[in-house]
Amino acid sequence: MKTVVMDFRDFEDKAAAHRFLAAQLDFPDYYGHNLDALYDVLTSDVTDVNLLVLPGGKDWEQGFFKAFTDAAAENPGFSVGIRA
């Protein structure tokens, strides 16, 4: 299983977070770089991935956290841990 650490303190904006995920998880070229597309790809194209998330205190992170937890509930090949 591949483990990816995503530290939201490293991202200036949502676009940077999407680029990081696309690169680290080898998302397909058609990835739409929005939360709906993130959920779709996490539930359909991602297998054997554990994502460890370190919050950065930005208000827009909550949408990512919801997409991660919803996708993990749907896809047994994807797990997420969000540190406090």
Question: Which key phrases capture this entry?
Answer:
84 residues; alpha/beta; Barnase, Chain D; three-stranded parallel β-sheet; 3 helices; 42% helix; 20% strand; globular
Describe the structure.
This protein has a single domain (2-82), classed as Barstar-like (Barnase, Chain D), CATH 3.30.370. Helix 3 links the parallel strand 2 and strand 3 (78-82). It is globular and about 30 Å long. 42% of the residues lie in helices and 20% in strands. It contains three helices and three strands, in the order E-H-H-E-H-E. Helix 2 (35-44) packs parallel to helix 3 (61-74). The model has no long low-confidence stretch (mean pLDDT 97). A three-stranded parallel beta sheet has the order 1-2-3, covered by helices on one side. It has 84 residues and is of the alpha/beta class.
List the helices and strands and how they pair.
Elements: E1 2-7, H1 14-24, H2 35-44, E2 49-54, H3 61-74, E3 78-82
Parallel strand pairs: 1-2, 2-3
In short:
With 84 residues, the chain is α/β, with parallel strands linked by helices. 42% of the residues lie in helices and 20% in strands.
Binned, the helix content reads: 40-55%
The CATH superfamily name is Barstar-like
Domain count: 1
CATH topology: Barnase, Chain D
Strand order of the largest sheet: 1-2-3
Major sheet details: 3 strands, parallel
Shape: globular
For the termini, the CA-CA separation is: 23 Å
Average of pLDDT:
97
The helix count comes to: 3
Run of helices and strands: EHHEHE
Report strand %: 15-25%
Can you identify the CATH class? Alpha Beta
Give the class from helix and strand content and strand pairing: alpha/beta
Which second-level CATH architecture applies?
Answer: 2-Layer Sandwich
**Any low-confidence stretches, pLDDT <50, length ≥5?**
none
Compute the gyration radius: what is it? 11 Å
The overall strand count is 3
